[in-house]
Amino acid sequence: MIWILVRLGDSGINGARFFICTESDIQEKVVARYTAFMERHDYRRPRGGASSQAILNIKDVAEFEDNWKILPNYQADDGLA
């Protein structure tokens, strides 16, 4: 599965940033971030640990910005990237 994450700027779609990657890329990033968080907090989640929340920041997915080539049949000459 391919994920396309969109970061809309103040100017809306005109200033949007696109991050294109596979689902396994997302899973790896979430696991790495979660593990780093848990190591910093002695493997204890805040408020009892019932949350399954996972957060990724722009820096976590920056390597996938404008990674349009991952899409099947992508052709760079169409002016999109």
Task: Count structural domains.
Answer: 1
Backbone CA Rg: 16 Å
Strand order of the largest sheet: 1-2
Low-confidence residue ranges: none
Task: Give the CA-based shape.
Answer: elongated
Instruction: Write the H/E string, N to C.
Output: EEHH
User: Main β-sheet, in a few words?
Assistant: 2 strands, antiparallel
Secondary structure category: alpha+beta
Write structural notes for this entry.
This protein is an alpha+beta fold and 81 residues long. It has one domain (2-78). The chain contains two helices and two strands. A two-stranded antiparallel ribbon has the order 1-2. Strand 1 (2-9) and strand 2 (12-22) form a beta hairpin.
Provide the fold topology.
Elements: E1 2-9, E2 12-22, H1 23-40, H2 58-61
Antiparallel strand pairs: 1-2
Key phrases:
81 residues, alpha+beta, two-stranded antiparallel sheet, 2 helices
Summarize the structure.
With 81 residues, the protein is an alpha+beta fold. The chain is 27% helix and 23% strand.
